[in-house]
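2024-03-11 09:14:02 DEBUG pipeline.ingest accepted 1 chain
2024-03-11 09:14:02 DEBUG pipeline.ingest length=128
2024-03-11 09:14:03 DEBUG pipeline.predict start
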Amino acid sequence: MTGTDLILISPSDLRPTEAFHPDRVRAVIALIVAGQAWTQPICVERASLAILDGHHRHAAALQLGLARVPVRMFDYERVELGSWRHDWCPTRLEVLRRARDGDLYPPKTTRHTFTAGETISIALARLT
């Protein structure tokens, strides 16, 4: 496996690390339904399936009842971690603990920086 493998996986197998904004989820659902395609994978830590980026897409997938979603798998040591909030300083261990325990950060707390992946477009019908 490379550092950024792309697979299809059940959204119920993924472990959130942050809460989400319901209004943003509705907007994401509208984009997915209008385009009838999924264009940006959810980024997760390979070993734990902790969501690093894509909490709103994950919530949209659950609300749409999708059986699988495109996920880009990352080795966490290859991902830069920061925060969108000046008053938070998350660590990798804390992110993974929160995923394991369901103790979610507030929305838009962690900021993970990734190597750019290829553009995707997966028909929504393939994910149901």
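2024-03-11 09:14:41 DEBUG pipeline.report The two ends are 26 Å apart (CA to CA).
2024-03-11 09:14:41 DEBUG pipeline.predict end
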